[in-house]
Specification:
Blueprint: E1 4-6, H1 8-14, H2 21-32, E2 36-38, H3 40-47, H4 53-64, E3 67-68, H5 73-88, H6 95-106, E4 110-112, H7 116-124, E5 128-129
Parallel strand pairs: 1-2, 1-4, 2-3, 4-5
Amino acid sequence: MKLLLVDSSAWIGAFSKHPPSSVVRAIVDSKKNKNLATCGMICLEVLRGSRTEKEFSELREEFEAMHWLPITDGHWDLASHMGFQLQKKGFKPPATDLLISAVCIENRCQLLHQDKHFKQIAQYFPLRLF
């Protein structure tokens, strides 16, 4: 089963007043097919933006229903290596994006995002973008 890891940038887009239909459709389809994935970093980024306790609880419940991809020492190592290599090429993506990319690469997931940094990372590493 090919998992779809949804970055916080895509979740934020999906929760906006005018969500991109392609993002919403991908999330809905993946949820229906039970191949929606997340990791701790994405969960943290989304949950901290909750406006109320109720919203926090509802979002947390949604995340608990997804495939949970653990973050290992190997992911931190890969993220560090990618950051080092990209810096030499003039790119400095945020550490969070490097870590999410490492989780995605190691788990052979596709990444749904709305963030230019992932496109930069994918130019040099085998990050599969949706």
